[in-house]
Every structure is written in C-alpha cells, then in structure tokens.
Design brief:
Layout: H1 3-8, H2 11-21, H3 25-32, H4 40-60, H5 72-79, H6 86-106, H7 116-121, H8 128-137, E1 138-140, E2 143-144, H9 150-174, H10 177-180, E3 189-191, E4 194-200, E5 209-214, E6 220-225, H11 229-258, H12 261-286, E7 293-295, E8 300-305, E9 318-322, E10 328-332, H13 339-353, E11 366-368, E12 373-376, H14 386-403, E13 409-412, H15 421-437, E14 441-446, H16 449-457, E15 461-469, E16 474-481, H17 489-495, H18 500-508, H19 512-595, H20 600-621, H21 629-632, E17 645-648, E18 653-657, E19 666-671, E20 674-679, E21 683-685, H22 688-708, E22 712-714, H23 720-736, E23 741-745, H24 752-763, E24 767-772, E25 782-787
Parallel strand pairs: 7-11, 10-14, 10-15, 12-13, 13-14, 22-23
Antiparallel strand pairs: 1-2, 3-4, 4-6, 5-6, 8-9, 15-16, 17-18, 17-21, 18-19, 19-20, 23-25, 24-25
Helix pairs in contact: 2-3, 2-12, 3-12, 4-12, 5-11, 6-8, 6-12, 8-11, 9-11, 15-16, 19-20
Pfam family, one: Smr
Subunit structure: Homodimer. Binds to stalled ribosomes, contacting rRNA.
Enzyme class: hydrolase
Length: about 800
Amino acid sequence: MNERTIRVLEYEKIKNKLKKQATSQLGKELIEKLEPINDFNEVQQRLMETSEAVSLVIQKGNIPIGPIYDLKRYLKIAEIGSYLYPKQLLEVGDTLRTARVLKNFIKSEDSDKFSPLQSLISNISTYKNIESRIEEAIIGEDEISDNASPTLRNIRRQIENKNTAIRNKLNSIINSSRTQKFLQDAIITIRQDRFVVPVKAENKKDVPGLVHDQSASGATLFIEPMAIVEMNNELKELKLKEKAEIERILREISGQIGEVTGNIKINQEILANIDFIFAKAKLSLSMKGIEPKLNNRGYIRIKKGRHPLIDPNEVVPTDLWIGDKFDTLLITGPNTGGKTVTLKTVGLMVLMTQSGLHVPADYGTEISIFNQVYADIGDEQSIEQSLSTFSSHMTNIVEILKNVTNSDLVILDELGSGTDPTEGAALAMSILTHLYNKGVKTIATTHYSELKQFALSNEGIENACVEFDVETLSPTYRLLIGIPGKSNALEISRRLGLSEDIINKSKEFITNEDIEFEKIISTIESNRKTAEQERDEAIRLRLEVQRLKENYEKKYEKLQQQKDREIRKAKEEARKILKEAKREADEIVKELRNISKDVGKERNKRIEELRKKMKSNMEDLHEPVFFDEDMSFSEPPKNLNIGDSVKVLNLNQEGTVLTKPNQNGDLNVQVGIMKINVNISNLRLINEGKESSKKTNIGSIMKTKTQNIKKEIDLRGQTLEEASINLDKYLDDAYLAKLESVTIIHGKGTGALRKGIKDFLRRHAHVKAFREGIYGEGGSGVTIVELK
C-alpha cells in the first residue's frame, strides 16, 4: 500500500489502538506487521475471524487469555539437551496452560462447524502432564518444591535435621559458662556456608576451631568450633546432593519439553494469532464496529460512518456512496466544515477493511477491495504558503497519475488550491476528467464554484456538500450528496453586521450567471429540507403504525393461546367427568346384576339405594358454584389495604387481606385458619358496614400487635415442628406490626434447629432476606430476618 497514503490517513494510529487491546508481545508483533492487502478471499477470511471473535466475546464474556511468553530461546535450550531454570519453566507452564484454556474456551459444541477460530484451535496441542509437573515441582522463580521428588524431600529433611543438630550443639557451646566469656556475642552466625560463633580475637586459642572470617575492626573472629566441623561437612555434602537432585529434576522436566518443542512452536504461532484476532474483536466492540459487506467492483456505501480516531460522543456520522451511478464525487463547502474528515473517514475505512478490521458504521455498509489507495491530503492552507503548497501537492498528484489504474481509489483534498483560482479550477477539471476517463474511483474536495457547474454538466461526476447552518453560522458536518455547496459569504456577512449597502454593491461585481446559479442551489437546498422533513414524518408514522400492528398481533396471539388453553382444559375436564360417570355407571350395573337374585322387599330396598346414589352422583357432576351474584358482576377492588375484608368468589368465603397485591395482582388472604394465595380478580370488597367493622377490628388487632410485639423470639429447646408453628405466628404478628427486622434465637447446639429454621425462612411469604448474626449480635446462635 502507498506509504504516503498510510501516513496522511493516520493508519498507524489505528494500529496503536489495536496494540493496546493485545495482551502479549507476540500479538503486538503481529499487529506491528499488519498492513492492508488486496486479496479478496484473504480479506474476507480476516473479517470472518474478527466477527467470530466478537461473537464469542459477546456470548461468553471476557477472553481467558493468560500469559503468553516468547519461548523460542527456551525451546532451543531444551532441544539441545540442556535444562531450563525454574523461572523459564514457569513461563513455559503458563503458556501451555493458556493454550489449553483458550482451546476449551473457543471449542464449539458443534463439531462439524467450520470457522477460522475453530480451524486454528484444532491445531493446538495440550500437555496437561507437563503443566502439572511444572506446577508440582516449581513454586517460585528460584524455588523448587519439596514435592518435586521423594529423593529431594528426603534430602531436605536430612538437611533440616542436620541444621537442628548443629544449632543445638552450638547453643550448648555458647551457653556454656566456660565459653561465654570468650565470645564477643552469644549468637550463632554463618560464614562461607558454615555455622560459626563470634570469638574475641585475644581468646582465639581458648575456642579451638577453624577461622572463617573476621570483623572489619579485627576485634572479632568467626570460628567454626572443632566439635561441629564434621557436622558442617555432612551438611555441605547434603546441600551438594540437594543441588544435584534439583538439577536432575530440571533436566527431567526440560527433557519432557524437548520432546514436544515442534508442537509448542506451533502453539506459539497460534496463540499469537488468537491474541491478535481477539484484539481486533475488542477494538471492534470499543468503537461499535461492524463487518462491512465486501465487493470488488469499486462500489463504496458507508452508512452512518464515524471517523475511528474522533471521540464517538462528538463525531457526526457520515453517509456516503460512490461507484454505482457515478465514479467521481466532488465535495464543496466552507473551511472547517468537515470535508477533510469525510475524506479521511472513507480512506481509513477502506484501509481498515482491507486489514481485516471492523469499521465504525451501521449495518448495510459495503466496501470495495482496491488494488491501491492514493491520497493527497494536507492541512488548511493560507495565501502565504501557496507556492510551496501548490508545488508539493502537484508533485504528489503527478506521481499518482503515473501509477493509478481503474482498480484504485484516489482521494484529493483541495484540488487545484494554492494557485490562481482560474488556472487552479481549470487544472482541477482536467485532472478529474483524466481520472474519470480511466475509470478511477475519485473523491475530491474543492472551493472553486466552477467545479460545481462542471460536476452538474458531466455525467458520472456527482456534486456533494457539507451542510452549513446560516442561523448559527456553524457547519453541521452532514454530507449531502447530489447537492452542490452554496456560497454563504454574503449571508454570513449580513448576519455578522456588514451593511446592506456594501452587500448590495458586492452583488454588482457578480455575474448574472453566478447569481442565477446560486438561486438554483438555494431552491434545491430548500426543497431538500422540505423533502427530508416530510420523509422523517412519514418514517415516524410508519414506525408508529408498525408498533401498533405489533402490539395488536401480540394481543391477538395471546388471546388465541388463552382460548386454546381454555378449550383444552374444558375438554380435559369433560373427559374426566365422562370417565368418572362411566365408572360409576359400571359399578351400578354390576350391583344391579348382583341383586337380581334377591327377592321381595330386600331387592327393592337395594334398588332404591342405588337409584339415590346415582341421583346424588348426577347432582355432583352438575353442581353449580354458588356465589354472591351482585358481587360477581362488580369490579375487582382497585386499592386494597392490609386488613380489608374481602369475599373469595371461587370459595364463597370471607377473608382478610394480609399482603398488598404484587405486579401480577396476586396476594395473600386469611380465610378462617388458612392462608391462601389468590388473584385480585377473584376478590370483591364486602359492603361498607361490614368493611368498616372489619377494618376497626383489624386496626385494633394491629395496634395491639404493634404495642406488644417483641423484636426477637427465643426458640431454644423446641422441636423443629413446634418452632415452625411458633415462628410462623410470630412472623405474621411482626409483619402486621410493620417491623423491618427481627431476631430469631435458636442457639448453636447440633445445628439441626438452625438449618430447619433457615429452610422455613426461605419459603416464608413475609421474609425479604436473612443472615447469620455477627459478633455482638449472637453469632451463629441467632438469625437476623429482614421483613418485606
């Protein structure tokens, strides 16, 4: 890809954002090498892997990418038969673990599913045995575990015993009244890996032994008493054995790694790729990117595209298309209106797509694969810079025109600027005509009004402008394709306070053709705004109609489902009734056959009994549900309060409201000694007289409960059944008294009562939450309950 294009479109900044999403140095190295490619199939493959990674992150959450180290040097050491140090082995183990965890994370349950990531992880080799061996043997960067081998454990136990024996011996020496007077301090220290004691220099001969060191002043000698020389020698031998065993263990583990270095190298490449792919996914999610549709015919359609390097809360989305009905797009408008940002947005999205990255736009965006992208974009220019600027731009444009083909995209900012306006406009028209005739897709910006007319009069070249709000004297940054930019100089000057005389005088210097052209543009602009308003209103109405239609369809579907349920329920009830009736009839027939042998009054008596039984059964089958007819046709109560007296229609019983209805209309009602859960539609308020009477009684009960209820209940010494009954009544009273929390004292004991009470609380209607008591509240011997 063209180096200047990469630089002016700030592609490196996108790579830097991508690097921040990678977790390993290997992944960042791949990102550093990333550049746009023009192979259609390869680009499609890269986009697919990014999309798959995005989907995995959305479905499964954070990616378990652990440490991924560069193991190339370590693997070479293992291959030649040498051994790795503990820190190096830990890095190998961590990398192997990361490979295994990622493979399990990405693995699909659908084994036939083919995708880029599935293809990658299928080549990962896992070595749980090596992981476990490293984890078992090494506990730090410089520390080997005692469990690394039985031999090492035994040697270290001997070392510990020998250390203890030496210290005991030295303690007996330094604590001896005969020796203490010869010592500088009654302490044990170590010099050159040997245990020694600090002896006064003048008493050297009084403590026989080997001198290993002396103090800086020379007043103290560090002597190894002869009594422990042999023991120190034995300790030295044990430490040499320990070192040899550690080296053997490291060689053993390194040898296991050396046998599979080829597969671990493949793992390294795959892990770097996976880190790179998930970095692309995280970048996509951070900028709300989408996978663009690809084509290779030079067609670009960007829907609500946002420049990826501008704050998403500030950037204004851009709609742009080219390559279908026109190959050249000419954008006009004032400075700081967003023309250059639009060019960079298009160019950067093409480069990102050809790099396998998602683009910050809406679904429906389509990007073509180009062989090359050429861009000539500079900062806003001034008259003083005109000569050098013009020369610089023309040098770049000459190079572009030499190499460009019909498979390329050309982006030109302020074409023809920096020189005489007439010559600059003529040159710009000539360059655009040349590019158009070669079939090159071109997007250019300009200030020249001549180019607006040029675009209008030439097929295949389309005008566009960045919208400017004259009322606020500021750009809206919206791109309008099909409309040339209108010069707002006179209108802006008028609003800024320039006198009408000067403005009118200026119009005399403008040709009639220019004035007429500006009027046409104004008319087009006015018609466009009207059309957009009407379109927005039409869309709003269509969405409203669609919403109403969806609501209607949902309600209709719900009614149909309810109807089907009721029909099925009725059929099931009818089937049960018929089955029961048949059974009863069969029994009666059987009875009649049995009594046919009887005679006289006895037979008549039995027949009469059976007739009454059949009549009773028939009455049971057709037994109506009795309820208060006036109440059944009245409306369900709208505002129920705790303590209200109600009638439960399906039971034909009176009750008292215990809880307020929830969002589904369900509540608890006390009917006699029972508490039942009913829906508000099945309740009716009892008449005012009874209601007021009931309310008075309930009010007095609640007042009594509030005054007498305690904030704790002691259930110690009770069986679980007794405790459950007493606790249920207490919670009802506490709820009516509107206590927010209560304490249940159950003691510690065997824990059976405490467990049973907690099971009971989980099912209780009045309990919002509960916890075990803390220090100062009674600890595990009490449970604190929060009531609804």
